[in-house]
Amino acid sequence: MKLIRYGEPGREEPGIILEDGRWLDTGGQFNDYDEGFFALGGLEALQAWVEDGCPDAEEIPQDVRLGPPVDRPSKIVCVGKNYLEHAKEFGEGIPTEPVLFMKASTCWSGPFDDVICPHGATKLDYEVELAVVIGKTATNVSEEQAFEHVAGYSVFCDYSERAWQKELGGQWTKGKSHDTFGPMGPWMVPAAAVADPQGLRLWCKVNTELRQNGWTGDMMFGVRQLVAYISRFMTLLPGDVIATGTPAGVGMGMKPPRYLAPGDSVELGIEGIGEMKQRIVAG
After folding, report:
1. Is 81 helix (H, G, I), strand (E, B) or coil?
2. Which of 34, 40, 147, 171 has the most CB atoms around its CB within 10 Å?
3. 3-state secondary structure of 151
4. What are the tens digits of pLDDT across the range 168-220?
5. 269 and 186 in contact (C-beta within 8 Å)?
6. What are the angstrom distances between the C-alpha of 196 and each of 10, 80, 193, 216, 265?
7. Strands 108-109 and 182-190: what pairing?
8. Burial of 134 from C-beta contacts in 10 A (0-12 / 13-18 / 19+)
9. In the Cβ-directed half-sphere of 207, how many Cα atoms lie within 13 Å?
């Protein structure tokens, strides 16, 4: 099964996509896919409900708007320069430990929603990433325990305004957090359905041109390491999201750089997880 949320922004309802292709509403069983859902064993209860034949479930149309597959998390923790070739194109050295930064949760957006190019932005960029959804509270967990705290995986695009990120001083957050800069989806795949999160191809196209074509196995710090490492410095709550970094091929790394502009389209995906598409619009 795949977890989805559908409906108008801010008013999404939970649902699932079954292996037989049906889209079913789960709102009669669960309020939302949020911190409480994951913390109280909701994923296991959902699986049991599916195995019981989804009693009283209503089908939903497959042309509805999809929102992000989990409710807005308490935090979005991102990993910078986690692929060697991207670290090289980014500059500023190769990290010896994971580089962590945050995106404001108000950037949360659906997988096919428009992305706003903010007023005054000149260097809007894209980054396809594997997203990790935390399933239970993680505080100072070991690498051996890390996967026990993962609920599932999704596709994430870490949109960035590079001038705001790198040229205005301070930390990266200001270039990462504008509204719509954090689309995720189109669904969450439960961790049990992903045999190896380090064995996935991820890619990104801009206006049909392939820009990024990478492999999660090329991460310098894998999912197991990241969950354990991040939990040393902050408590990861159920429903929190870790964006694990992007491979080479971002607009900033091209010579000359090729940034996004209103009218551009960005398609991205991870094999075995899903695909998203956004249109860039003027703010």
Report:
1. coil
2. 34
3. strand
4. 888 899 999 999 999 999 999 999 999 999 999 999 999 999 999 999 999 99
5. no
6. 33, 21, 9, 10, 30
7. parallel
8. buried
9. 9
